[in-house]
From TrEMBL, chains A, B:
UniProt keywords, alphabetically: Isoprene biosynthesis, Magnesium, Metal-binding, Transferase
Classification via PANTHER family: FARNESYL DIPHOSPHATE SYNTHASE
Cofactor(s) required, per the database record: Mg(2+)
Protein name, per record: Farnesyl diphosphate synthase
Classification via InterPro entries: Isoprenoid_synthase_dom_sf, Polyprenyl_synt, Polyprenyl_synt_CS, Prenyl_diphosphate_synthase
Species assigned in the record: Aquamicrobium terrae
Family under the similarity heading: Belongs to the FPP/GGPP synthase family.
One of the Pfam families matching this protein, by short name: polyprenyl_synt
UniProt feature coiled coil, ranges: none
Cited Gene3D superfamilies: Farnesyl Diphosphate Synthase
């Protein structure tokens, strides 16, 4: 039993989600930053629709809790800002992935997707502006009002890491591989690479970013990044497993969707029993990476189990 | 007469264009940066198609020549990198603006647009990945091999300025205003704001970025930004004037396109004579801003005249 087990994990996740949403709401208000000419109402509304839609905020949670692991209390505001920036990138990717030219989804979390609530042009621009805003948030030292302001080199490391996780060699590249995989099925190594890019890179970055904000040494940054990689794999495997096994009613969406779309997944390739064993192994691996931090890492270990065991 | 008038301006512009294109080509090769997992071939090809298409490279020229004004010889490579980053942002905006949901253009500079040469999904992702790459280029201090490496605070100022010029309160916001203007005609103040955001912000930033790279004092940065604003206005006004007056054969594209699309422009509102007087005034204003720099500013003054007098 973890000592922190008295506070249910999901309550803690919710509390962090509310904190980052308050910040996201203030970053998406009508207040102009220096150098901005105007914030067009319709674009702002489309951005809010894509961001303030009640996600679990898992990635921001990982940033903030990874920072807290290294005692970044004085830098909590900066950790939240890095978390908000990452969530802007995650939400931009969902807005663009939902477009008719990509996955063509009308609904996300029971609400119309941005291009359905507005139009395609607004959805494209809202995604573009959110991606841009993410770098603005990280690079804006004028907003730095924490007790321990971030050194410029730390901000740069955050921005560079985010760019690399999100771009050509990370998430955007992974989405391209996912699109081509639908008519040119990848082999097992190809599936692993695709998933490491499309969903893994941002989750890995979330954990590493917390360590960067906290000013943790290089070896700890690397350890947290590896932890992030393990739970990124678990996240995707749990998702694929649900698609194979879940009953559609509990999941709240159609199952068997991957197979129908011709998407090869590891869970489909090796079967649900293999996938469950893998998930167990990934949680073990993630937890053992955090052993050096003892009880302080209890929350992050819970996060690893949560990611692997989620049933929707 | 400028002392540098012996070298025709367009030759100088071409030479700088080739220099930045060499860098862009190397940034878009198959070489993986640390942290990148793979560079998917099709995405890379779509990005190259959108970037290496023979533009005038006016914005990169302004970055490099503004840096050179402050004697940034030792930082020439860094000025080129900032210029390449800005060009990535400019090209991403063209790729997304050309999409069917936006301006729906099949051709750009006589070549198929990215969504015509590839498909819409590839064009959306190529734009996303170029925008992301721009911040990677600026924030990557590992690539710093100049004689006078950029301080981290300088890189941060470049990244923040780029984000603010390109995002919600700048270029992306301007594109949204442009789309809404087609069925809700703005007044004169609205047209000016729209243009300052859609095309002005990046040109203003180009000139300011050069001063930032060179480590120029705040007052010079502000002066160069104002110079950029003046030529940004001239750039748009010359464009609008051509649409009203040029003969379609010389322009190589249809004229009267703005009026047909219901786009209000200042040249259409006040007539060509007014527009020509304004252009003359803007070039005067831009040149007088550079008076303190004497003959060293001759190239940038030529750039202002070039922008105002271009006939295609």
């Amino acid at each position: 039993m973890d000592t922190n087990a008295e506070i249910p994990f999901e309550m803690r996740l919710d509390a962090r989600a509310r904190e980052v949403e308050t910040l996201l709401r203030s970053l998406l208000d009508t207040h102009l930053l220096p150098g901005e000419i105007a914030r067009p109402e319709r674009l702002l509304a489309a951005m809010r629709h894509g961001v303030l839609n009640g996600g679990k905020r898992l990635r921001p949670f990982l940033v903030v809790e990874s920072a807290a692991l290294f005692g970044a209390g004085a830098r909590h505001i900066e950790a939240l800002r890095a978390a908000a920036a990452l969530e802007c990138v995650h939400c931009y990717s969902l807005i663009h992935d939902d477009l008719p030219a990509m996955d063509d989804d009308d609904l996300r979390r029971g609400q119309p997707t941005v291009h359905r609530a507005f139009d395609e042009a607004a959805a494209i621009l809202a995604g573009d502006a959110l991606l841009t805003l993410a770098f603005d948030i990280i690079c804006d030292d004028a907003a730095d009002n924490g007790a321990a302001p971030l050194p410029a080199a730390t901000r740069l490391a955050l921005a560079r890491g985010l760019a690399r996780a999100a771009g050509l060699g990370g998430m955007a590249g992974g989405q391209m591989l996912d699109l081509t995989a639908q008519h040119d099925a990848p082999d097992e190594a190809g599936i692993i690479r695709l998933q490491a890019m499309k969903t893994g890179a941002l989750i890995r970055y979330a954990c590493e970013a917390g360590a960067i904000v906290a000013g943790a040494p290089e070896s700890d940054r690397e350890r947290l990044a590896e932890f992030g990689s393990a739970i990124g794999l678990a996240f995707q495997l749990a998702d694929d497993l649900l698609d194979v096994t879940a009953d559609a009613g509990r999941l709240g969406k159609a199952t068997g969707k991957d197979a129908a779309a011709g998407k090869a997944t590891l869970a489909a390739l090796h079967g649900p029993d293999w996938a469950r064993r893998q998930l167990h192994g990934l949680v073990e691996q993630a937890s053992s990476l955090l052993e050096p931090y003892g009880e302080r890492a209890a929350i992050l270990k819970q996060a690893a189990r949560f990611v692997a065991q989620r049933d929707r």
